[in-house]
Amino acid sequence: MSAAYLSLARSGPAETLAGAFDVEKVRADFPILKRRIYDRPLVYLDNAATAQKPQAVIDAIERYYSAENSNVHRGVHYLSQRATCAYEGARAKVRGFLNAAEDREVVFTRGTTEAINLVAQSYGRGHVREGDEIIISEMEHHSNIVPWQMLCEERGAVLRVIPIDDRGELLLEEYERLLNKRTRFVSVVHASNVLGTVNPVQQIVKMAHRWNVPVLVDGAQAVPHAKVDVQELDCDFYAFSGHKLYGPTGIGVLYGKIGLLEAMPPYQGGGSMIRSVTFEKTTYAEVPNRFEAGTPHIEGGIGLGAAVDYVNEVGAAAAYEEGLLAYTTEALREAPGLRLIGTARQKVGVLSFVMGDIHPHDIGTILDREGVAVRAGHHCAQPLMRRFGVPATARASLAFYNTREDVDALVRGLHKAREVFG
Amino acid sequence: MSDLRELYQQVILDHNKSPRNFRKIEDANRSSEGYNPLCGDHLHFYLKVEGDVIRDIGFQGSGCAISKASASLMSSALKGKTKGEAEALFKRFHDMVTGDMDAPPDTEGLGKLAVFAGVREFPARVKCATLAWHTLHAALKGEDKPVSTE
Q1: Which residue of B has its CA nearest to A359?
Q2: How far apart are CA A145 and CA A160, in angstroms?
Q3: Band of pLDDT at residue B1, cut at 50, 70 and 90
Q4: Does domain A57-312 have CATH number 3.40.640.10?
């Protein structure tokens, strides 16, 4: 990753030592990787759907339930203080992970989807009027399309879409043309869940800011691979999910610049998000509690905190991941009749492909019997499928615990699929 | 490999490659749509029903080998059958692909459709094999809402 807008390198002294990353040591941290599927070793290549969990995350959740379980922000008793401390401690860890300026800029959500809906509903409804425009891109996941469509429909606003080229890269000159005085918001993905493309987010933000337009970045597929610095990107919002970062499901993060968050109305009403309630009038809590109505996903927050610690501890995996991506790309190019969808110059380890007339679901079933887990389908990106003229793709997605042997098993499985289908 | 061969039998591969009755029937008096939005399999069925008898049946769409072959073999099996016979076959087919994996499959009366017995071993693919049948069922009942087996 030579581009200035995204450094794939997690900072750390180990980065400079070739081979310092020990994949076997990392694999030993993930208990599920020891299990066998249909009497074959598990080859887990569906990391873009969800990543496996290291023992440290599993232990943190177990510890919380066996020793600290209590509600947060409420009780004066010992356990409640411990739970609150652990939960808010996780917020601080996420702040550090994203290099946000302060803890208050980290809002816990159920995931990326809820984070985007929160912004669309809370910020969007306050700022988007009839005839206004919102810009997204052609490579968005449905979660970064539908919330904006709903808002546009409600407000009579217009959704504009940045097109991509055949490699799967955004056409920035088209984006430049789409920005205008009616533009109220830009929401783009950092790394595509189908193409693997890493978008030049810093540049996209800079271009929007010339029109005083805020930008949300969907980082669900980027944070597991890249060091993200929200201050360096200068994005206004950044969203990601815990479970793709080796943490639990049901917890995610919305980062927002404090000035923007403070000016936003609540998203949902309920407990925790109030300052005072009477039947005549309710005043709302400060940020971030204003956006976290109800008892939160405490175990999820704590688990995510442990995942962030774990990822920091693993440290510099970028060179390893890049090497593995190059190896996989090369190996797939040699598979029989295979066409890669997504050949951008800046990519994370997400490889979508089709294979002649063999439907991706049939590829998925044949690989499954080899112990190889991949995703098959439209990956919640139907407009993108149409762009590339395919109903679905098979997708192998890599994590830092994957090996060249995993990739070899994938390729062997693809040969088997060719054999079955003749 | 053996259970994969059980699933992807030659007849299934053949019907996937060259589906029978793969056409729109212009003067159809029944039609229906089957769509599994999560996996993307999409079928349209066209029927010509006279009195109680299915005189002609055609389909169009896209999907995996299992869903396409199932639609193709079903259409061949049902031509000339009565609605009652079609519904009875649907039940038999459904029982076969969702049956107990440890007992031998009950393929009685299913003829060529017995090639789908291997689907039992692949629970994730049952929805592919049954989409055509549920779609047909909707056409016979005159339901106009798209059908899904997800």
Answers
A1: B64
A2: 11
A3: low
A4: yes
Distance from C-alpha of A242 to C-alpha of A249, rounded to nearest angstrom: 6
Active site residue A152: no
Where exactly does CATH 3.90.1150.10 map onto chain A? 13-54+315-421
- Number of structural domains (chain B) is 1
Preceding peptide of A31 cis, ω within 30°:
no
**CB pair distance less than 8 Å for A421 and B13:** yes
**Chain A residues closer than 8 Å to B36 by CB:** none
- Give per-residue pLDDT as tens, A36-61: 999 999 999 999 999 999 999 999 99
A15 confidence band (pLDDT: 50, 70, 90): very low
Peptide bond into A147 cis (omega under 30): no
B149 within some domain? no
Contact call for A366 and B4, based on CB within 8 A = yes
Model pTM score: 0.92
Q: pLDDT grade, residue B52 (50/70/90)?
A: very high
Residue B37: which domain range? 2-141
Q: Are A349 and A192 in contact (CB under 8 A)?
A: no
Q: With a CB-CB cutoff of 8 Å, which residues 331-390 of chain A face chain B?
A: 357-362, 365-366, 369, 376-378, 385
Share of chain A above pLDDT 70, in %: 95
CATH for B53: 3.90.1010.10
Residue A248, φ and ψ in degrees, nearest 5? -75, 160
pLDDT, position A16: 44
Q: Which ipTM score applies to this complex? A: 0.90
User: B100 pLDDT band (50/70/90 cuts)?
Assistant: confident
CB B29 within 8 A of CB B141: no
CB contact under 8 A, A365 and B17: no
B125, part of any domain:
yes
The domain A13-54+315-421: what is its CATH number? Answer: 3.90.1150.10
How much of chain B is in helix, strand and coil states, percent to nearest 5? 50, 20, 35
Contacts of A363 in chain B (CB under 8 A): none
Please, are residues B52 and B29 in contact by the beta-carbon 8 Å criterion?
no
Domain assignment present for residue B150? The answer is no
Interval B20-38 mean pLDDT = 94
Predicted pLDDT of residue A6: 42
Q: Is residue B57 part of a domain?
A: yes
